[in-house]
Design brief:
CATH topology of one domain: Immunoglobulin-like
Number of helices: 3
Order of helices and strands: HHHEEEEEEEEEEEE
Strand content: 25-35%
Number of strands: 12
Largest sheet: 5 strands, mixed
Helix content: 10-25%
Oligomer: single chain
Amino acid sequence: MSPSRMAGDKGRRGRFVATSIGVSALLALGCVALVSGLAGDPRASGAQAGRPAGAAAIAPATAPGPATPDVVTPTEPGPTNPGAAPPAESPAAPADPPAPAGPDPAPVDRKGKSDQELATIAQPVAAAVDLTSRKAVRGGVSATITEMTAVQGVAAGIGEVAGPAIRFKVTVLNDTAAALPLDRAVVDISYGDDEQPASQLSGPDPTAFPASVAPGESGAGVFIFAVPLDARDKVEIHFNLEAETPIATFAGTAPA
């Protein structure tokens, strides 16, 4: 090889080596800069912690503060609150007791009156009592209804019709100082809302009042009257001692 060619080859090798050194230096400087930039980038630190680079940073959790109690506003019951219980109803006022029966009417004053005048005067009727109660007829005289039973009435007299009937005893107590006549005493019955008069029957086993009752004693009579079975819820028994005395009335339900 000629000396001039050898010199040219050496020059080219020197320029190549210098160029390689310069490129290496530039690459080293770029790596240093890249490492420095990654160190200052918070996203790079996140990537080093296992989070992909570029992922959003997660804000630290805030410690919970003390719980604030809920404020509950009381709701007044009323028409606008369907869940509220209705107010308790006030107890109904007790019904007024029935008015006591007034005093019995006064006896008929027969003094100085003719028979025609007395015929125009209606005999007074006393306030009714229960069938089982004792009723004062006049001063010292009282009457009681006992032994009432349902029977089959016996017809023996004119116009009588046998059929369902009630049988009962009327006992009259004479608590006066004189004998009490009972020969004029009359007993009758009415029933139903229209006070239909009942027919007296001959049996079974009637007993008439005694003619009179001694002071401090009592006398009784047994009577049978035809009363339909479907009309025994409203029965009235009337005891008429005499024309001057108000008629004693016993009212109630007769046995069927």
